[in-house]
Description:
The protein is α/β, with parallel strands linked by helices. It is built from seven helices and eleven strands. Strands 2-1-3-4-11-10-9-6-7 form a nine-stranded mixed beta sheet, sandwiched between helices. Strand 3, helix 4 and strand 4 form a beta-alpha-beta unit. The longest helix is centred in the C-terminal third of the chain and has 14 residues. The chain is globular, with a radius of gyration of 16 Å. The relative contact order is 0.17. The model has no long low-confidence stretch (mean pLDDT 96).
Amino acid sequence: MTESVRKALVVRGGWEGHSPVEITGLFLPFLQDQGFTVEISDSLDVYTDDALLAGTDLVVQCWTMGVITPEQSRGLSAAVRAGTGFAGWHGGVLDSFRGDLDYAQLTGGQFLMHPPGFVDYTVEPVGDGHVITAGLKEFAVHTEHYFMSTDPASEVLATSVFPAAGDRPRDVVMPQVWTRTHGAGRVFVSAIGHKADDFDVPEVRAITERGLLWASR
Length: 217
């Protein structure tokens, strides 16, 4: 095991339908093997601990829905602006704290809808030589397909297509994986990850693991 030189903070909770404990648990051994010490919090109050966040290299959040207080939101945003990395997937970052504009600017996207149930769709990596998607070809998943409002300033690394249907008159290319910066901090977001076996798809697992490492200080 690599000597521990960095600190990760895993913040998990909210709606249990996204299995925050089970799915974040998939990545704890990986982070430890990569040299992180890992602290886990089941309270958003950790975002008001300035000293703790200043010493944290990576925040991994899986917290669906819920309400974040202004103090918690400001603390998280300030920490990332100062260089703490932020990363997460699916509703754990994209369906969190609706109505908090500072948080939405941090993540660069927000969940709007998905077709009923789980569907088959193709994800196409588009990052030109980015370390997160290097060597990966298009791949198929069977899970929730997120339609989102996204910030065009983000660097999109993978997309999917929503075909024309209902009120949608034409096919829509939707970002599924992206990175962005927030001050000095790096942010990684993936829309894939409703259920634990989504990460059995090798490309999903690789993108997520690489994204965590990329986002870290």
